[in-house]
Amino acid sequence: MVRAIVFFIGIAATLTAADLTGLVVAEHDGSPVVAAAVTLRTGTRVVAELETDDLGHFRASGLPAAEYIVTATKASFTTAERRATLTDAGVDVLLQVAKLGVISGRVTDNQGNGVRNFAVAAVPMPTDGSPLRVYNSRPKGAVTDAAGRYRIFGLPAGDYVVLALAGNARSTADVPNSGIADTSHGNTAEYYPSGKSPAVLAIRSGEQHTNIDLKGYSGPLFNIHGTVTGPSPDTPYRVSLVAEFVGIPLASSTAQPGKEFQFDHVAPGTYKIVASRQIPTAVSNLLDQINSGQIAVNADNQAAIMKQLEAAQTADNDPANKKRIDLAFAETTVTVSQDLNGVTLSARPAVDAKLSYQAPQNCPSSVQLTLTPIEYLGVGTNTKKLEAGVALPLSDLPASAYGVSLPLAESTGCYAVTSLIDFRQVSPGATVPIVVANRGRIQGKITTTGYSPDEFTVVLTTADGISKKTFLLAKDSTFSIPNVLPGRYRLSAIRRTATRVAAADQNIVVESGGTAEVEFPGLP
Amino acid sequence: MFLKLAISLGLICCLQMPLVAQPTPQPAKPAATAAQPTAAQPKPVGPQGTISGLVVQKGSKAPIERAQVAMVGPNGSQFGSTSNPEGKFQVKVPPGGYQITVRLVGQTGYIGVPTVKVVSVRQDEETKTEIELPKAAEVSGRVLNARGEPVQGARVTLLMRTYELWSTNLVYMDTPFRAQTNDLGEYSFEGVPTDIAFHAFAEIVTPGKAEELSMNAADPDLRRPILAGTFFPRALDPGGAQAFTLAEGERREGLDIQMVQTKSYCAQTALLPAQTEVPHTIDVDLTSIVSGVFNGYGAFRSGRVIQLDKDGRARVCGLWPGVYRFTVQPQGRRQQQGEYFGRGEFIVTDKDLTSLAAKIGPNFNWEGEVELEGPAPGKPLDRPMAVGFTNITPTSLGLNVQAQIPGKFTLPNVHFDRELFRVGNLPDGWYLKRATWDTLDLTQNGGRFMLDQAGVAVKVVVAQDGSRFRVRVTDGKGEPAAGRRVNLIPGNLTSAQQLIARLWSCYSDDKGECSVFSLPNEPPRSVFAPGDYVVLAAEIPYNQSADVIDQFWSTIQSKGTKIKLTPSSTGEASIKQEVLR
């Protein structure tokens, strides 16, 4: 009898075959998530592909003891990933996924009839509290159907500005091509809830906002006519009509230098007109003609057009040609309440300034800096390499306002305090210092009286309540949150099950380069 | 940004050639765009008449603005216009017969397919015509999984049964009607044509990253089941699919597709030599669904595209039981050193595949020789001929070299691909008689062939005894009928499928005559090889569904007129307009 037991244990020690079990729950209410895809990996090797049952549980039996990465995914939810150390005794894993939000509603005309073919966009507000920067903010969108209905889904919790756009341009990012909108509504951007001025709509995890209705403009439409003047006499400008606040281009055209541009069917309102030189001319000319229908692509000419485009692309990729495409840029704001004639865009040359950087303690002497235009310029993000103590001259940016960030330096705990540079306010030849500081960190520990500490997670919320991040505990019930921007936060220790138990909250202050120590003693 | 647009332009190109050549609509400038140089319009010279048209909605007769109007007249001359807010358009043109094609582009609620009308224009007279555009249909439904729950992000496509040159089976052609389901599994289409039997097909299109290689368990039994590409209502195989045809103005709802759940299989194999420096991709798709041209617009279907690793290996997972084709090609630029091209097919049954049969090879130089059949010309030819081909793929790369008659030529750095063989610059009356390559004559299939072996030279034979056609179309009273479509096919065809790439067409001039014929994507031609041909005057609907092709085939067999072209002659026929049935 005794020998038999010893023999059995001996087998188990060499061929451990334990169960990895788990539960996938929704973060906002702790409800089980059914039919979530769960993948178990060791390193990059997939060990098992599972699916949660009707109670959100999953089980992989007979696995060797090892450290596993467990990932849970499901449509309409964020993805959750956790490490789990499987021993002879088995391991039970809790994965929390956040339900994504939905905004839906109708776009109607003055008579209350649904209007089709409006592109509705949900533009995320920056989480750091800075003003709306639509360009590069990856809005999500949908196009209204015949009844004017739209539905935007897959929205992470956060604050959004919702607007309906009509125009002949393709909108940025995920806004599907709206085609040519019904001309009676013109080139226009209408905001929720009040038309011409945006308001912020806060979406919490899993929320569905169903009656986000917008009104499409119906009424007289106007024309804008003008000219572009400025440097670079031999290549044309791309001129865009840009919606105020969000910076999404509604319509674009090409103007030869010193020549005219025109936008037809513009709804009353305030717009920005932007002229830039960045888009390779040969390609943009061709695409303009295709998008406007001047070239109707069909079976007979498609091969030829493809060839033309390839040739244009090749020409634009040619460094010799690229030099020819100067960086001039112009913008003006117009308010349309009647036909506008003689709008003049005076292009100015590229930025003439220098950037400098002094490395604080614990920050690298060389950093990658990204400059992201905060408004639509027709150009994308620009990356620069900054060396401490060496002024970096700039000459390849349109003179406008840019958001500043240090994407690669984040892992070192450094961040750019200088978050915005408006080069229009910088005198020619001046040096702009990029101030960099250390992030802080939070360290803590929880102790419990009943439940296993393993069942708790820690949630860090910014003082304004907008941004939330969830962190897991280490084996010894401690937690460590690196790279936290200096500021005030709320920290919560939460145990989530089918019935939610929020355990404790604490307010903390994180200082530059400092470590905030937190303890949650005596949790249930 | 332009990369994105360039990709979208890539969608315009196509793998399959349209059966039906369509008059090119003269581009119209939409009112909503900014100032642009206006498209060049041929300036009529000499005597003129006027076409005054009115575009209205069928039934209600409400005027339709911004309809694109294209007119094809004598000698292939083209004119274009756009209807104004009252639905009217007016164009001054030389006298003659005109085929007017009207369509709406970019406006929903109407079918984007053309309505065609034929008019006759006399000098100093106004020809009035009214063109009715039908209302389109709408269709919507949901995509559900095996549990009946909505599937988010599924791609739903409306497919049309058609024939393809490269396949012996009926295939299902992609159309521009393509949608993604939302979080409720819903999809919808507007502007759907009402004269085609469509199939709805739902599939999950996962992005194909190289890392995908390891994202599936090695043992198929440990993999999660997948949702297989499914035809409406819940068929893996097109044989079990239900087609649907919509009525004018119809709103069909509840076209729900329940996706079939199957086991997931992988195919893993080395396809290229190790350490191939140029990055390559593999594109895997079902053989039963193909790209095509629908109503003049390309519907380019991309399957799952996965990058090969640096050792030339690919692993494609998430496959359900079925027949697949694949293409291996270099990423990015083409016709460079170190590139490979090739194709293959495989069948997934109930296990993973560890090898894929394919014809893949590096770029090579293709040699050829031109011969002249018949007596040598009295004096030396003053110019060489052109020999070359175009890839019938989205790249549409072409290559032409000069060749003396007789003489040798080399087409440099070509790759395995679907090609359209062509010659040019031949003296008047000369024609390409044969192009022998291995066991094939490349002049068959309208010049389309699969270039899939290196080291085999092509022998091009040209001859001088080419012949011409003069086909006259008459109306019911025996008067010449202008602007009518005359279809021309070789006399030796034995099935509807062989019509692909062999159906020539011409629009009759103001004398009702046709002598210059075109194939889609090719320059018009007036000199043909002596032999047997069949002609039929009949309009062909814009779409190339198998139904239309079958109808045309049965009509030309029963109503077609045979013409025997003897060497160096003109084959004549007088025919009446027929209707496909």
Descriptive report:
The complex is a heterodimer of chains A (524) and B (581). Chain A is mostly beta strands and 524 residues long. Chain A contains four helices and 39 strands. In chain A, the strands form eleven sheets. In chain A, strands 9, 10, 12, 13 and 14 form a five-stranded antiparallel β-sheet that branches. Chain A has a four-stranded antiparallel β-sheet with strand order 3-2-5-6, with no helix packed on it. In chain A, strands 8, 11, 15 and 16 form a four-stranded mixed β-sheet that branches. The longest helix of chain A is centred in the middle third of the chain and has 16 residues, at 302-317. Chain A starts with a helix and ends with a strand. Mean pLDDT of chain A is 77; it is low at 1-14, 168-183 and 316-326. With 581 residues, chain B is mainly β. Chain B is 4% helix and 43% strand. Chain B contains two helices and 43 strands. Chain B has a five-stranded mixed β-sheet with strand order 14-12-9-10-20. The longest helix of chain B has 14 residues, at 546-559. Chain B is globular, with a radius of gyration of 26 Å. The model of chain B is unreliable at 1-17 and 21-42 (pLDDT under 50). Chains A and B meet through strand 3, strand 11, strand 19, strand 20 and helix 2 of A and helix 1 and strand 11 of B.
Task: Please provide a brief summary of the model.
The complex is a heterodimer of chains A (524) and B (581). Chain A has 524 residues and is mainly beta. In chain A, the strands form 11 sheets. In chain A, strands 9, 10, 12, 13 and 14 form a 5-stranded antiparallel β-sheet that branches. Chain A has a 4-stranded antiparallel β-sheet with strand order 3-2-5-6, with no helix packed on it. In chain A, strands 8, 11, 15 and 16 form a 4-stranded mixed β-sheet that branches.
